């Protein structure tokens, strides 16, 4: 069990009802320690424990964590109370991007003020780095994949996010069209997911989809500035529309995962503990 896994389990136990802490500590620690024997991700299980404690803190609820999380992936029937960790992380990344777009619109009234530069940098991080962290964490939590491959994909996704941050702040100015830059970043995240998921060779052709989407969306994004809307609203909408290539990349990753014949690797979430209200 890594230091991160121990920290997640400890935090989960601390957030649990007092009467359940000792039982959960022993059960969750045993499940995480034995995850490798079942070809599961220990970090995914530890994060599942954390989300279980975070979202299901009522003392009158009974957790079936031990039965669920030590089962082979795909062998447990989903219930209405399962917590899909990876979709939640990706949704947070999308929400962060939209929040950054809204903040970018608000900042237009302070354009040119040196005092506003730190806020612009913060906004750039919300637009780029936070989604990158979401993708990185999602790839690290993929089940049925060796840790080395997950780390490779996660680090790659994080580096792509940092590159996007550099492009957004103007630190890096590649000699390519802005639309291509956006498409390449989205394709980079898709490539990281394909590396982790070990998809068939033909799926690499899907990398063209976010690039094409970026080229098609770029004129639409710029056309917003020709409207009669306030400039701050124009900037926010133009930035928000630019998320399309990334959504296309996400859809391509899902398609690649479903088309594979390898059933042991799943891009879907490592489920959090299943919770039964029946006590």
Give the amount of beta strand, in percent: under 5%
Give the ordered list of helices and strands: HHHEHHHHHHHHE
How would you describe the shape?
A: globular
Low-confidence sequence ranges = 58-83, 260-279
**Range of helix content:** 55-70%
Mean pLDDT across residues: 77
What's a quick, concise take on this entry?
By secondary structure, the protein is mostly helical.
Tell me about this structure:
This protein has 279 residues and is mainly alpha-helical. The protein has two domains: 3-71; 85-259, no CATH class. The protein has eleven helices and two strands. It has helices at 3-15, 21-33, 42-55, 65-69, 85-107, 117-140, 147-169, 178-197, 208-223, 231-241, 244-259, and strands at residues 62-63, 275-276. A two-stranded antiparallel ribbon has the order 1-2. The radius of gyration is 21 Å and the shape is globular. Mean pLDDT is 77; it is low at 58-83 and 260-279. The chain crosses the membrane at residues 86-107, 119-142, 151-167, 179-197, 204-225, 231-256. Keywords: Membrane, Transmembrane, Transmembrane helix.
Name some characteristics of this structure:
279 residues, mainly alpha, 2 domains, 2 strands, transmembrane, transmembrane helix, membrane
Show the helix and strand layout.
Layout (H helix, E strand, L loop, with lengths): L2 H13 L5 H13 L8 H14 L6 E2 L1 H5 L15 H23 L9 H24 L6 H23 L8 H20 L10 H16 L7 H11 L2 H16 L15 E2 L3
Antiparallel strand pairs: 1-2
Helix pairs in contact: 1-2, 1-3, 2-3, 5-6, 5-10, 6-7, 7-8, 8-9, 8-11, 9-10, 9-11
């Amino acid at each position: 069990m890594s230091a991160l896994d121990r920290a997640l389990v400890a935090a989960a136990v601390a957030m649990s009802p007092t009467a359940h802490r000792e039982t959960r500590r022993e059960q969750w620690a045993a499940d995480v320690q034995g995850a490798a024997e079942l070809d599961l991700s220990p970090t995914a299980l530890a994060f599942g424990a954390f989300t279980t404690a975070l979202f299901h803190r009522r003392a009158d609820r009974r957790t079936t964590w031990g039965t669920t999380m030590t089962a082979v992936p795909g062998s447990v029937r989903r219930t209405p109370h399962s917590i899909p960790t990876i979709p939640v992380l990706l949704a947070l990344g999308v929400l962060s991007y939209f929040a950054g777009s809204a903040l970018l619109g608000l900042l237009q009234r302070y354009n040119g003020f040196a005092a506003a530069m730190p806020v612009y940098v913060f906004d750039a991080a919300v637009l780029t780095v936070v989604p990158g962290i979401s993708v990185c964490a999602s790839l690290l939590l993929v089940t049925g994949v060796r840790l080395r491959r997950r780390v490779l994909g996660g680090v790659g996704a994080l580096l792509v996010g940092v590159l996007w941050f550099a492009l957004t702040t103007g630190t890096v100015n590649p000699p390519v069209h802005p639309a291509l830059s956006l498409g390449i970043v989205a394709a980079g995240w898709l490539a990281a997911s394909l590396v982790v998921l070990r998809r068939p060779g033909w799926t690499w052709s899907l990398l063209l989809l976010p690039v094409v989407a970026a080229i098609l969306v770029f004129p639409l994004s710029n056309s917003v500035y020709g409207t009669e809307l306030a400039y701050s609203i124009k900037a926010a909408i133009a930035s928000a529309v630019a998320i399309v290539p990334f959504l296309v990349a996400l859809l391509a990753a899902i398609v690649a995962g479903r088309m594979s014949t390898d059933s042991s690797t799943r891009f879907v979430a490592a489920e959090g503990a299943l919770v039964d209200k029946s006590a």
